[in-house]
Design brief:
The complex is a heterodimer of chains A (373) and B (311). By secondary structure, chain A is of the alpha/beta class. Chain A folds into 2 domains: 165 residues, 3-Layer(aba) Sandwich (Rossmann fold); 185 residues, Rossmann fold (3-Layer(aba) Sandwich). In chain A, 35% of the residues lie in helices and 19% in strands. Chain B is an all-alpha fold and 311 residues long. Chain B is 71% helix and 2% strand. The longest helix of chain B has 29 residues. Chain B is globular. Classes of the chains: A alpha/beta (373), B mainly alpha (311). At the A-B interface, strand 8 and helix 7 of A face helix 1, helix 11 and helix 12 of B.
Chain lengths: 373, 311
Amino acid sequence: MIDLRNLSRRGFLNMGAAAGASLLLPKSGLITPAHAQTPLAAVAEENAVIAFGHTGPVTDEGWTWSHDQGMKAVQEAFPKLKTLFVESIPYSADATRTFRQFVSEGANMVFATSNYGDFLYDVAKRSPDVAFYECDGRNPLENLSTYYLAHWYPTYVTGVAAGLMSKSGKLGYVASFPVPSVFSGTNAFLMGARSVNPNATMQTIVINSWFDPQAATQAGTALIDNGADLLFGIMDEAGYLQVAEQRGAKAVMWNTDIRRYGPKAYVSSIAIDFKKFYVDQVRLRLEGKWTPSQTILPMGGGIDRDAWGETVPTEVAKQADAVRDKILGGWSPFEGEIKDTKGNVKVAAGHRMTEEELYNWDWSIEGVSGLQA
Amino acid sequence: MDMIAGLIQTSILAGGVLALAALGETLSERAGVVNLGVEGLMALGAITGIAVVVATPHPMLGFVLALAVGFLVGCVFALGTVVVKANQVLCGLALTLMGTGMAATIGRAYSGMPAPATFAPIAIPYLSDIPLLGRAIFTQNILVYLIYIVLPVVLHYIMFRTRHGLNMRAVGENPAAADAAGISVQSIRFWYVAAGSALAAGAGAYLTLAFVPSWSEGVVAGRGWIAVSLVIFAGYRPLNAVLAALLFGLITSLGFVGQARNWPIAAPILSMLPYLGTIALIIVPVLAWQRMRRVMAAPAALGEPYFRDMR
């Protein structure tokens, strides 16, 4: 795991600046760096209550489902503790109410499986004895950890396959919101595609939701009508995969193996697995060793590409997997010079983007259209 | 050109939901009953459709059962509004709240699950070979042909070309006179409200079996209300209602096409289009059709319960 605990002061300032610049994230002037402190007291397994707050339904076979699998792994590892979960929490004061409810029900740990920002931050601040987690979070506290995935690496790998498989060189992307995950996703995917097809471009459509099968379906249709023959996105469900299957296009998905909804269209998926992370974190808390952390799970340790789809030619799979091995060996594709959509050099030649820079990516590279920060 | 064909194809598909719901509402309102429960009925139909295709691989069965569910719930609504003569607006709102809530509860088990069987597009021979728009218009699923061609023509014929239709409109315009002429106001209202509710639930099933195709909470997304406003815009006429729904489908699809084509309009504004469209649809008739006020007017007794002894 890449531990961001020992980030430089400058790195933290950068993170704060990026968080402030992004629309959906809370604007907070002060970021308390997580430092060594006394761990939270141990909890006996039979008294422990672990709560999960989800952004979508656990039946989505995607993001929320994967987190729910993590919760089931926790239940299996620690059969005596009690778990709670709430699905489809809106990004509003209702979220604060839900998290506060968890605390009043005696939760020792609260996992927010999406970036609830201030709605979680406020609750965490008032309950110092409870360990909070925010997935894709950017404002750590003494009792609020953040965790996320280095999804840009497997995304780059699938991008290479996409570049080889797309005939028109026009890629489509179904975006949720203009947030860093979407910028790093579109950029990494197009960079991968451009490594094999320099003329590849990417068109995005923002649908303002992580889970809206209806909008994702319509967006996918509009992208294909516009000439895209390979779709990517960051949706928690299979909407645009079904469109691609019907229209004879290809699709790269997120979260889980959902190839049965479009076996011919399925290329791969940015597959996630939080089981080990959750079990480890709960163990730390129970043993009284819990201190806050900022974690980004690396490729191969919580995130990876899924097994290739049946219509992916072997040479394509081989070539993409060679890139994957290279990345696992320590190489990074995210090196300058990288220009933004206006042609300004944003990453100087020779500079390798750091994990924080990738985590906080908030501008589009040349060739991506439709995304404005 | 592909873009235009694609736009028309998705507009037809997207408008189908509204067209079916609006046809149902037209039936109900022509008989003099405002049914504001469309949103709830659509939610119930949507969950019925998905539940059936998860159990059996027959989308048609799902659609028919959704119609049946809508009919039954519509009977309950008609019992309240026509037989007991309770306030129609309140009953409608109650039906919406109950329908969406119940569908959300039942739907928890199906959330996010793509429909295992859907209505596949059927290409009509010869017609679908017409260059440019042939494929867009004549390669649709069977419900689209039903909603856009068969149903509106049949309903228009019944409402405006038969004695029964005259009776039904009379009930909506002047129930007292209809009653005096020997028409059973209560039974006409009851059955048309139930039939209209069935179509509304069918629209929900269309959503999950042909359009999206999967269930998620809030999948109806206010389309029931849009359908109610379409009926007013269409002057309570089935053929107009279908055209208005098509126009609306076009507005909805334009939002996505605009983004795909990089129109210099912010994405949030494009996402607002359907709702801006609804507001426009409500205002336009009032402003532009002053002259046609009599032709486009609502049935005179719309929303008023009929008490025989209070004439």
